[in-house]
Amino acid sequence: MPLRLLVLFLVEVAFAATATAQEKVSFTGRDGVALNATFYRPVGTGPFAAIVAMHGCGGPWKARDDDWSERLQAAGYLVLFPDSFGSRGMGPQCNVRERVMTSKDRAEDAFASAEWLASRSDVVKGKIGLLGWSNGGAAVLSASRSIRAPVGVEFSQAIAFYPGCRVFSEQSYRARIPVTILHGLADDWTPAEPCKSLSGVTFVGYPEANHDFDHPNVAEKTRKAAFSANGSGIVTVGTNPEARAQAIAETMSLFSRM
Question: Is 25 exposed, middle or buried (CB count within 10 Å of its CB: 0-12, 13-18, 19+)?
């Protein structure tokens, strides 16, 4: 068995045997809003490496959030999921064309989250990673740009799942920290092609994988969205088991290097 898949298998065994330990926390965002978040803490006293995780356009998605957070928790990471939309009284944004919150705004939430984690005695300040999906993946890219950063702390590693990259590709994007994009090559919601041109970014593409390919259990289906690659407003989503397994292995490997 390849080493990365062996590591993944061992983590999955530990993950399956670990009960969820999570709590609701709140801290002040950069705009003064009380930023509500779900906090997953491993067993032990720490200090621990930590991950800031940014939800997609639908807001917190318990099945995916728990799946990833419990896996990371079992591997010894603290995980913090700030709720950018709910904290501001906003609902899902997937079908909203004129969105109030931009990826730059959400990057500010990522910065506030990192600063809050860095203030804790149970966090290794030099080992804080950033993770996000779709709209949250775009927030990861925005938070990783060379033009701004959190105060008094820095992300060691950033991973964006299937972000929308078109705007960044048109803005001379340059990353200031290690950034990896994990993208489905069949994605017709946030197409992969513009992501390949971003400076300082590692791109990993998965053939035949659609949007949400890493979700633990979503049968392939179509849905409506405010934006789509072909302009129809109809996009395809669903789990791709092979791409999911490879992306999990890649993610765990990258975060282990922090």
Answer: middle
Query: Domain map of the chain by residue range?
Result: 3-256
pTM over 0.90: yes
DSSP type of residue 168: H
- Spatial neighbors of 180 by CB under 8 A, at least 6 apart, are 157, 158, 159, 160, 201, 202, 203, 204, 250, 254
Give the CATH number of domain 3-256: 3.40.50.1820
CA–CA distance from 192 to each of 1, 95, 133, 200, 238 (Å)?
30, 20, 13, 16, 16
> Among 73, 247, 67, 236, which Cα is nearest to 159's?
247
**Nearest to residue 150, comparing CAs of 178, 128, 120?**
128
pLDDT per residue of the chain (258 residues) written in tens, 0 to 9: 454 444 444 444 444 444 458 999 999 999 999 999 999 999 999 999 999 999 999 999 999 999 999 999 999 999 999 999 999 999 999 999 999 999 999 999 999 999 999 999 999 999 999 999 999 999 999 999 999 999 999 999 999 999 999 999 998 899 999 999 999 999 999 999 999 999 999 999 999 999 999 999 999 999 999 999 999 999 999 999 999 999 999 999 999 999
DSSP H/E element including 72: helix 62-74
